[in-house]
């Protein structure tokens, strides 16, 4: 692929988890910081080593201040399929680009990173000594060097068949590490207020990155739960708010989710979670409200809507009802009373969500949400669409052998008009997902079949 002479080559060392989410995260962040994705990265598939071209080192550093999918980034000086090819590549790298980091007053060290193989110390020293042709003039400092260089060797993805020689070898100058430590520091296990479906910290940050959340944005979650997604957005400097139909969850009341704790404490709530991480100043508010009946006046308020709607498995899908909708046989309530809740079909929930996003997002704002699917019946046509929203990415996370959820990212590209909210009723592509209204039954039918199969095998 022909590359512009103004672009420098960089090597990304990727984490080996959430593989489908990595490429959309990197693309979203590069777009956010003014970079352009120039490598045909799809060809790397599951590899942890990605080569891409960027116009500046600043963009590479900004990328690493946000990503949780990448471990480190290096300015790539050389690359080859063998040691000979690597050395040849390094010798052709412009000396003027090396000199600022190799002058006599500088300190440095060289590290070895191998994927899918462990080297002895003797083998590592041998590889470092072989680089003596490079014009290093500074002093080695293993504790606090000014510059760190790395040899990275790729031995493939199969741990049961490790080749004697690497498939690829890279050499580069370390620039920065990613934000992998956020996964531990924001772990749900350490969080003060959680619920049955609190989102994993790593996925929360991935969602915020897919949504291009940035400083001073306003981010909204219509199914806020215990506010895990708000925390990730607030960490990146966005002001956060949300709604939920469950009064007890919003106010931190009722039974606790944690083991050996019967009731929630007086300070267990969403605001307290943000306070725990020093993010309370970004908390706008959370309202008890029904996502199917938004109470917002018309307008474009939100830079991003990031949410995890209920699937009806651990948390029920509910909406507020009315007197006309009460099933026959139930004693009539006073006119001033609204029944606690009625069932809320998944297809209706997602269509309402897309309409709400189309109406309230700013142009260029993003909607990021989870779509549960029954895998044997899933096709891409089932993903709900809207004339005001462009599909940016669609990533799968498996839940079981027969179910998964798709992380859908959409961008608002057109101003909402009243007729847009009815477009789905006339469009055939919207019809297939209606079969997933029975997602809960299909989910548990698979569980029941698996238990029955295990019981039969135990009896034999």
Throw out a few tags for this protein.
460 residues, alpha/beta, seven-stranded mixed beta sheet, elongated
The tally of beta strands, per DSSP, is 16
Class of secondary structure makeup: alpha/beta
Mind summarizing the main beta sheet? 7 strands, mixed
Gyration radius, rounded: 26 Å
Order of helices and strands: EHEHEHHEHEEEHHEHEHHEEEEHEEEH
Give the fraction of residues assigned to helices.
Answer: 25-40%
- Distance, first to last CA: 59 Å
- Beta content: 15-25%
Oligomeric composition of the shown chains: single chain
Mean pLDDT: 85
**Reading side by side through the largest sheet, how are the strands ordered?**
2-1-3-7-6-4-5
Which geometry do the CA atoms define? Answer: elongated
Q: Give me the number of helical elements.
A: 12
Q: Which stretches are poorly predicted, pLDDT < 50 over at least 5 residues?
A: 326-333
InterPro entries: DNA_methylase_N6_adenine_CS (IPR002052), RlmKL-like_Mtase (IPR000241), SAM-dependent_MTases_sf (IPR029063), TRMT11 (IPR016691), TRMT11_N (IPR059073)
Family: Belongs to the class I-like SAM-binding methyltransferase superfamily. TRM11 methyltransferase family.
Main location: cytoplasm
Keywords: Cytoplasm, Methyltransferase, RNA-binding, S-adenosyl-L-methionine, Transferase, tRNA processing, tRNA-binding
Walk me through the topology:
Layout: E1 8-14, H1 19-32, E2 49-54, H2 57-64, E3 70-80, H3 83-91, H4 95-98, E4 107-115, H5 121-129, E5 139-140, E6 147-154, E7 168-177, H6 181-185, H7 201-210, E8 218-221, H8 228-235, E9 239-244, H9 247-251, H10 270-276, E10 283-288, E11 302-307, E12 318-319, E13 342-343, H11 346-360, E14 361-374, E15 389-398, E16 403-412, H12 439-459
Parallel strand pairs: 4-5, 4-6, 8-9, 8-11, 9-10, 11-14
Antiparallel strand pairs: 1-2, 1-3, 3-7, 6-7, 12-13, 14-16, 15-16
Helix pairs in contact: 1-7, 7-8
């Amino acid at each position: 692929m022909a590359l512009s002479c103004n672009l420098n080559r960089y090597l990304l060392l990727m984490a080996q988890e959430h593989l489908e989410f990595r490429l959309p995260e990197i693309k979203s962040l590069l777009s956010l910081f003014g970079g352009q994705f120039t490598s045909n990265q799809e060809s790397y598939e599951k590899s942890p080593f990605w080569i891409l071209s960027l116009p500046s080192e600043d963009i590479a550093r900004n990328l690493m201040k946000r990503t949780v999918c990448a471990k480190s980034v290096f300015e790539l000086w050389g690359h080859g399929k063998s040691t000979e090819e690597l050395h040849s590549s390094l010798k052709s790298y412009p000396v003027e680009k090396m000199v600022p980091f190799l002058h006599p007053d500088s300190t440095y060290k060289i590290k070895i990173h191998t994927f899918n193989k462990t080297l002895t110390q003797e083998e590592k020293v041998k590889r470092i000594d072989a680089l003596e042709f490079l014009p290093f003039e500074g002093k080695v400092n293993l504790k606090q060097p000014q510059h760190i260089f790395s040899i990275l060797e790729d031995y493939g993805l199969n741990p049961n068949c490790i080749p004697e020689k690497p498939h690829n070898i890279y050499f580069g100058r370390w620039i920065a590490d990613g934000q992998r430590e956020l996964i531990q520091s924001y772990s749900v296990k350490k969080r003060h207020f959680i619920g049955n479906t609190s989102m994993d910290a790593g996925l929360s940050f991935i969602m915020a990155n897919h949504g291009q959340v940035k400083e001073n944005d306003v981010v909204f979650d219509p199914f806020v739960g215990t506010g895990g997604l708000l925390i990730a957005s607030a960490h990146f400097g966005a002001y956060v708010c949300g709604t939920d139909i469950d009064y007890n969850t919003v106010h931190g009341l009722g039974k606790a989710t944690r083991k050996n704790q019967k009731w929630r404490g007086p300070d267990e709530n969403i605001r307290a979670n943000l306070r725990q991480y020093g993010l309370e100043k970004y908390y706008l508010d959370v309202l008890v409200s029904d996502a199917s009946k938004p109470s917002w006046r018309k307008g474009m308020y939100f830079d991003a809507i990031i949410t995890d709607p209920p699937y009806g498995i651990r948390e029920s899908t509910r909406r507020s009802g009315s007197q006309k909708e009460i099933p026959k046989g139930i004693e009539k309530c006073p006119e001033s009373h609204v029944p606690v809740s009625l069932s809320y079909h998944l297809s209706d929930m997602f269509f309402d969500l897309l309409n709400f996003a189309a109406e309230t997002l700013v142009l260029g704002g993003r909607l990021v949400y989870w779509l549960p699917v029954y895998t044997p019946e899933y096709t891409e046509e089932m993903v709900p669409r809207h004339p005001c929203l462009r599909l940016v990415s669609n990533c799968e996370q498996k839940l079981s052998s027969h179910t998964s959820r798709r992380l859908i990212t959409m961008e608002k590209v057109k101003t909402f008009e009243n007729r847009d909210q009815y477009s789905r009723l006339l469009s055939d592509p919207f019809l297939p997902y209606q079969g997933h209204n029975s997602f809960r039954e299909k989910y548990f039918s698979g569980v029941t079949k698996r238990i029955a199969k295990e019981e039969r095998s135990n009896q034999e």
